[in-house]
Amino acid sequence: MGKASKFTDEQKFEIALELLSGKLSHAEVCRKWEISSTYAYKLKDRAVDILRKGIGRPAGRTSGEVEQLRRRVTDLEQLAGDQALLIHHFKKNEIRR
Description:
Elements: H1 9-21, H2 26-33, H3 37-54, H4 63-96
């Protein structure tokens, strides 16, 4: 199990925003938050990656989740069609008896 972070997600978000905004230098942000330069770069890179992946996607859903849901809908539509054909077949054969 990994080491627990001394920062909350909200604090990490604040650090990343400060690094991305450029209002303070990288070194100033590191001193302010008492973090290493390496950790600061990791937070910044992670924030940029999340932003890059998130732009243009439906809110709250990753593209993988959306694609999975589309496949599920297609499968359920196929199942409903198959069931309708079976019901029609059984009703047709029942009437002939």
